[in-house]
Amino acid sequence: MIKKIIVVLTLLISIVGFAQKNNTSAYSFFGIGDKNSSSTVEQLSMGGIGTSLSDVYHLNLSNPAAYASLRFTVYSLGLENKNTWAKDSNDKQSAAATYLSYLAMGIPLGQKGGLAFGLLPNTTVGYSLLANQYDTSGEVIEASAYSGDGGTNKVFLGFGYNLFKGFDIGLQGSYVFGKIENSIINQQKDVALATKYETISNVDGFSLNAGFQYKTKLNEKINLNVGANFDFENETEADGNEYLYSVSLISFESPRDTILNRESKGFLKAPLKTTLGVGLGSDNKWFVGADYSFQEALNVQGGVFNNYSKIKYDVYNKIALGGFYIPKYNSITSYWERVTYRVGVKFEKTGLMVDASGNGNDFTAIDDFGISFGVGLPVGQQLSNLNLGFEFGKRGKSTNGLVQENYVNFRLSLSLNDKWFKKLEIF
């Protein structure tokens, strides 16, 4: 047991210092980057549902109340490969990124409680775009290169407890931290030097969420699951610097005269986010469920956030539908009958609105739609799984000067189960 704890702690420590470019989206420029889903590969393969789903063998990161259902110690690690094809009215570009998406561990505490802790990306920034302006003859008269990297991570600790039969509650605290770098290089025709605007921000903050789950039998074979999760209002602070200076791009980027060098401080305030879930299922056989999330608009103030005149935030909401099916979880004659088959779909209004024209009157909502599916492959003699997931989707649109992103995500996770604190048996 001690060796397993050391391995997990070593991985947690090493991943904190591991810099990874884990986004490929132009929309990750805004705010503190793209918000990542706090869901496992198993959940994302079902459209991201999980608020009402309790599981004895797998971690459910969508609702801390689910930790009360754990009966095995669970080690969970996820990897993701993102492939994006972006297009606007003039051009097309593609990009890809692979990264570690989460590392977590769940531990049962007797028959009524459980806790979980781990590390996962909170927001991600990663883009590299080139925009040209042309004269009437088709010659480039101005070029701008946009690039960004970094993001924020989240360390969390959660606890779930069974109050009475079928009813669990949970509470989870998280610390958010990270560093974000954005830059724009502008070069005009017949001008010797280019100009570069750069922001470097250190981000941190705390968040708290709580939830409940209720499970009851409708009949001998079918269960009704109901759940809710509440991400309480929180504030994320960004402290950093803004720079504006001239650069020479003849051989390599060489800074020259500094025009602006000042400290900046900004806040991103997230109001209460509520997620409600309901589902029907049969233990170790099948489950179908739906989650609905909603949140008032984000509020950004001060610092580099004031420079985003082309965006604003609106109400966020998301609908996710999905489920799983296991032909025969305890089959001894067929491996494929013990495989878990998953499928799901999501409809998401991200809350981000962009005005590409910059006149302040033509904001367009950036929506996201995705279809997902996956399998859970049994591993070894115990109830561990190798989980594979795929997602196909589209975000944004290519009209009004915006960018449409078509994406394919491949996900892989290991969910390893072990029984700690076994009683000594004498035969």
From TrEMBL:
<keyword id="KW-0732">Signal</keyword>
<protein>
    <recommendedName>
        <fullName>Long-chain fatty acid transport protein</fullName>
    </recommendedName>
</protein>
<feature type="signal peptide">
    <location>
        <begin position="1"/>
        <end position="19"/>
    </location>
</feature>
